[in-house]
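$ ./design --mode recover --in tokens.txt
reading tokens...
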């Protein structure tokens, strides 16, 4: 990942950052797409700073950004993509934690769609467990060939995960949530999920509530 990541930020409502929430946007969007979720969560997470970095590459299909290319013609492109993009994301997370003088236990990742793929891949490979991961409308990227034991061997930490998906999602069908929960269970990653009825490829108010309350619980336990 050649580009240096940066994006919009929100300072903690309390004035002192004791937690850090990093939003990872979807394919073709940018960091501005998710940062307002932080504003909605500030009453629940008054000590959290929020940052929503722009993905490193211009998107070939829109004016937005991408974590990695998606052509939907190659079954391995998601697995290849998360592996190529994760080192740059890790560098960004390390720098943000150092800037705030925070430990990994004070960090949470929140992804949407392609950003969920990145959050799950990078989050499970951090040397120290973060507080939690919330994934909206996404999936768990795994190789199409080879034993699952090879993927499990890469897991270095097991932060709790919440997955949220609309049952009317036509872009990434809700079955992806159940495949992800099965894969995470095989990795011994504690996982919760919520299915939003009648919701397509997006986030509704109930899904936002579940995400914010999940992070509030996780940060409280990490203190």
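writing sequence...
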């Amino acid at each position: 990942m050649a580009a240096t990541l940066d994006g919009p930020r929100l300072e903690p409502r309390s004035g002192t950052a004791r937690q850090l929430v990093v939003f990872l946007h979807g394919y073709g969007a940018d960091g501005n797409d998710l940062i307002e979720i932080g504003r909605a969560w500030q009453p629940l997470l008054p000590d959290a700073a929020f940052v929503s970095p722009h993905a490193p590459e211009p998107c070939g299909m829109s004016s937005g950004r991408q974590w990695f290319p998606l052509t939907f013609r190659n079954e391995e492109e998601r697995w290849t993509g998360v592996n190529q993009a994760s080192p740059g994301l890790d560098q960004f997370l390390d720098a943000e934690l150092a800037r705030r003088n925070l430990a990994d236990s004070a960090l949470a990742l929140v992804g949407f769609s392609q950003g969920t793929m990145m959050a799950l891949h990078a989050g499970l490979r951090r040397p120290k467990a973060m507080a939690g991961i919330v994934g909206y409308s996404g999936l768990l990227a795994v190789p199409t060939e080879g034993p699952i034991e090879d993927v499990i061997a890469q897991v270095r930490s097991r932060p709790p995960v919440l997955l949220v998906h609309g049952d009317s999602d036509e872009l990434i069908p809700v079955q992806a949530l159940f495949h992800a929960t099965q894969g995470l269970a095989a990795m011994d990653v504690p996982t919760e999920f919520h299915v939003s009825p009648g919701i397509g490829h997006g986030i509704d108010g109930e899904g936002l509530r579940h995400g914010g309350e999940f992070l509030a619980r996780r940060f409280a336990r990490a203190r």
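exit 0
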